[in-house]
C-alpha cells in the first residue's frame, strides 16, 4: 500500500505539471485507461487515512477530467453502483460518495449522466441520510446539492424529493450537529429553494381547502422556519448568514404566502438581534429578509418592528462606517419601509432615545458623500415625519429643524456643475450615468420631506401636548416649541426651498416635482396662520399666480396630470382668498383710521 501511495503521488505530480504528455501516453489505449481508473477506484476503498483518500480521489478526478471521455465517466458510475450495492455498511460507501461529489464539481455534464443513466444510485443516497454518521450524511447532502443544481436533475428528481427525500432531509437538517453537515444541508437547501415547487413542499403549503379555512392551521409551527431559527441562534456567523439567506430565498417566492410561518416562529426577533454583528454578508442577508417581511402586515401587528427598531438604527450607524454603498442603501430602504408601513395605532418609537438616535443617524447619512445613499436617506426622512412617530413628548423640534435644514442645504448644493465635481471623487459615484435623473429624484424626495414636515406642524396645532416642551425649566424660555418650528418652516421655505425649485425650473420641469411643491406651498398657508396674508402677498409679487397658470396650461390640459391640476387649483384658490382677506383688512383699517 505504501508503494501504491508513492506511485499515485507521482502520478498526481505528473498530472499537475505535465498533464498533456501523460494524456497523450494513456489516451490511445482505452484498456490501459480503464484498468488504471479501475485500480484507482479500488484503492479508494483500501485506505483509512483521510489524507491518502483525498489524494486518490483528486488523482482519479483529474485523470478523468484530462481524458475528456464519457466512457470513463460511465465506467466510474458503473463501479460506484456495484460498490454501493455490495457495501455491508454505509460507512464503506464514504469514498464513493466523496468521489461522486468531486466529479460533480469538476465535470459539468456528470450530474446529468448520473441522473439519466444511473438514477438507481439516488436510492443509495437516500439510505445514507438515515445512517447514524454525520460524515456520511454530509457527503450525501453534498451530492444531492449537485444533483438539484442541475435543471435535468431538478426535473427528474422532483417526485423523489416530494415523496421520499423532503421529510428525511428536514429531519437531518434539524438534528445536524457537525458544521460540515450543517453547511452541506444548507447548500442543498439553497438549491431547492430556487424552485417554487420545492419551496411549496418544504413550507407545507399544499393545503386542502378545509385546512386553509381553519385559523388554527395557519399558526401551527412549520419545521423549516424552526430549523432556520435554530441556525440563527448558533454563534457561527457563516451559518447565521446562510440561514437568513435561506429565509429570504423562501420569502422571495411569495411574501404573503410564506411570511406568516416565519413570523409565528418568531424568526424576525432573531433576525433583528443578528444586526449587532460587523459581518457585511450577514447584515445584508438580514436586511433582505426583513425587507421582504415588511410586505406582510402581521410583521407589524406582532410588534416585531417595535422590538427591533433600536437594533436597526444602531446597525445603520455601524454600516455607515463601512465602505459598502449597496449595504448602506439596503439598510436605509428597510428603515424607510418600516417607517412607512408601521400602523398608526402601533407606536414604533416607544423610547424617545431611540427616536433621537434615528434622527442622528439620518443627519449623518444626509451629509454622506455618496449621492445614491443620500437619496435613500432623504426618503427615510420623509417617512419619519409622521405624527405617530414623533408625538412622544417632548417633540424634538430643534433636532427636526437641523435635519430639515441639512436636507434642504444638501439638495440646494447639488447642481449639475457642482455634482460632477464634488461627487466624482468618491468611487461609488464614478459610474453614475444618470446623475440628472438622480438629482430630480433627490429634489422630489427633499420636497416630500419638507411637505411632510409642514403637514406635521399643522397636525400638532390640535395637540396641546405638542405645543411646547413640557420639560422646560420654570421661568425659562424654550426654543423647542411648535411655534418656533412653524416659523422656521416658513423662513427656510423662503430662503432655500423656493429658490431651489426656481433654479430647477430653469433646467427642467417635472409634473411630480411641481405637484409636491405646490402642495407644500398650499400647506404652508396653515402652518403659521397669522403670517399667511404676508406670505400670500410675497408669492403673488413673485409671479406665482402666473407660474401656476402656466403649469396648468402646460401639463393639465386634456385631463392630464389630474393630481397636479387639483393642487394648482387649490393653491390658486387659497392664495386669492388670502389676498382678498388681506385687502379687506387693509380697507377696514384705513376706514377706521
Automatic annotation (TrEMBL):
Superkingdom field: Eukaryota
GO biological process: meiosis I
Record-linked Gene3D superfamilies: Leucine-rich Repeat Variant
PANTHER family per record: BCL2 INTERACTING MEDIATOR OF CELL DEATH, MEIOTIC DOUBLE-STRANDED BREAK FORMATION PROTEIN 1
Listed name of the protein: MEII1 protein
